[in-house]
Design goal:
single chain; 531 residues; alpha+beta; Vitelline Membrane Outer Layer Protein I, subunit A; four-stranded antiparallel β-sheet; 17 helices; 35% helix; BTB/POZ_dom
């Protein structure tokens, strides 16, 4: 380490070298140029005087001395602590604070007009709407640049900083609140951010709520949230909710929103029809089945009997019918749904976005060597709706050259209202992808496995040669399904990609008639991964 004197010498030596530098051919005498602090080295800039601006020929220079800057701040602080040279008194409530006008003017534009209009020349001003202990925090910040905050006082300090136009202190308070969000205080933070236009705090609080809604909704502060704030949150088409770090898909997301708004309205003992309707309709009921809505309403007897709530439950049926008819008549040349359709909330006719996701093709194609049939490229996939989930896998076994192979394969997807439309009170059959020989005279040749709700296939093992010989699956709950088929062919394994949530989305393949019956070949897995 250099002493202060040696540091100054090094800095000034550098300046002297610059002043004796020869003028270049394209440089005019007396011209100036601005140099960054790195001209003299970053270490020198923090320890002693440094050149920040110099004429091209070195005859003039502007020197920055950080120690002088620090001495000025320290001198003001020591004078304030000792009560020396103060020239203004600030009366806040029952307390009086002595200060320096120059320091207060440097703190905020709020004070200069007050000093200019101090016509009685008493050398004192009075501040209203601020508590003495809160003003003390800001006054210390004015002299030290340090602001002392805690969870109990941060909102009061921010309000005072906002009132006195101390923008840096206001930002510091907002940052502190953002760093200390938790399920207990996030609703209060949302209210506060909304009232004081704190965009950073608002965004962070919204993200916290999205990731912790089940925990947040059980706190006492949740029911105190302004209904308009809740409506703003739940009306967002891009609303992504997650539980334990996993993003919810359409049905589970709307189910959580419905349960949350019902609990919110119940805890508030809400009776105002306008508020009931405004909040309740944020749950997009068209994404849920009648049974799911009924189950959610079970524990809220008084809401189940409320006319406003029941109106929207009935409108859900109208909306589902409207969507059916709209899909059939895209031109909308016919008045669909009648007068009731006019009351359907616009948001119900739109599907919310899911979390960012991507489809990922498997590592290879199996039984695609052209020995039985020549494939015309990868197999075509039928669906690309990220809401779909495999619910059941059916496998039919046949014999080929005297050994068992897979003759047919069917995937059945979980039904949900936006795809499996309801007709006359009944739900249409679920979506299915089926190819090959999907029938068998013997039960021994047919295998069917079903996945539980929230259970997904995360690993597959396939054995293949000329055809697909065998398949086996492992699920997210640890179950092993299979193997199904014969012992032939080479064995290959694929697993779900690394992601917060990922699983097998579909299996695509082609069918071929060989030795008098169907078989499948050119098989490819496709995975889906959510961020």
């Amino acid at each position: 380490m250099h002493s202060d004197n040696s540091t100054e010498k090094i800095s000034w030596k550098m300046s002297r070298w610059l002043s004796h530098r020869k003028t270049g051919p394209n440089e005019k005498h007396g011209a100036t140029t601005t140099r960054s602090l790195n001209t003299c080295g970053s270490s020198l800039a923090s320890q002693g005087p440094s050149v920040v601006k110099m004429s091209i020929d070195g005859s003039d220079a502007q020197i920055w001395d950080k120690k002088r800057q620090n001495a000025l701040i320290e001198g003001c602080y020591k004078s304030w602590q000792a009560g020396r040279y103060t020239d203004i008194k600030i009366i806040v409530g029952s307390q009086t604070f002595a200060a320096h006008k120059l320091v207060l003017v440097s703190l905020s534009d709020y004070f200069e007009p007050l000093f200019e209009h101090d016509s009685n020349a008493k050398g004192e001003i009075t501040l209203h709407n601020i508590e003495p202990d809160i003003f003390s925090v800001l006054l210390e910040y004015a002299y030290t640049g340090t602001i002392n905050l805690n969870k109990d006082t941060v909102q009061s300090v921010l309000i005072a900083a906002d009132y006195l136009s101390v923008s840096n202190a206001r930002e510091a308070c907002e940052t502190f609140m953002t760093m200390n969000l938790d399920p207990e205080n996030v609703c209060d933070a949302l209210q506060f951010a909304s009232g004081y236009s704190l965009e950073s705090l608002w965004s962070s609080a919204v993200e916290h709520l999205k990731k912790n809604l089940p925990n947040v909704s059980t706190t006492s502060n949740f029911s105190k949230l302004d209904p308009k704030v809740l409506v703003t949150l739940f009306s967002d088409d891009s609303l992504i909710l997650s539980v334990k770090g996993v993003s919810l898909k359409s049905i589970e997301r709307e189910k959580l929103i419905l349960k949350t708004v019902l609990q919110y309205l119940s805890d508030r003992n809400e009776t105002d029809p306008a508020t009931l309707g405004m909040v309740f309709q944020t749950a997009r009921l068209v994404a849920l089945s009648k049974d799911e809505i009924k189950n959610c309403l079970k524990k809220f007897k008084h809401l189940r009997k409320n006319e406003t709530i029941m109106k929207y439950v009935r409108l859900r049926d109208v909306a589902v019918h409207y969507l059916q008819q709209r899909d059939q008549d895209c031109s909308l040349t016919v008045n669909i749904g009648g007068r009731e359709a006019e009351e359907i909330p616009d948001a119900w006719l739109r599907r919310r976005k899911l979390a960012k996701h991507k489809f990922i093709a498997g590592r290879g194609r199996y039984a695609a060597g052209g020995h039985v049939a020549v494939p015309q490229g990868p197999p075509r996939y039928l669906y690309d709706d990220p809401d779909l989930e495999i619910e059941r896998v059916d496998i039919w076994i046949r014999r080929w050259d005297g050994r068992p192979v897979i003759g047919g394969l069917a995937l059945t997807y979980r039904p949900y209202p936006t795809v499996d439309q309801e007709e006359d009170g009944e739900t249409a059959g679920p979506l299915q992808y089926c190819k090959g020989h999907c029938a068998s005279e013997s039960e021994r040749d047919h295998f069917s496995v079903s996945l539980n709700p929230d259970e997904f296939i995360v690993k597959v093992t396939v054995s293949s040669g000329f055809l697909i010989d065998r398949l086996a699956f492992m699920t997210s709950s640890g179950r092993t399904l299979g193997p199904f088929g014969g012992p032939g062919g080479g064995e290959h394994t694929e697993e779900t990609p690394e992601a917060p949530m990922s699983y097998l989305y579909d299996i695509n393949f082609d069918e071929v008639v060989t030795q008098g019956s169907f078989a499948i070949y050119n098989l490819m897995f496709r995975w889906i991964a959510f961020e």
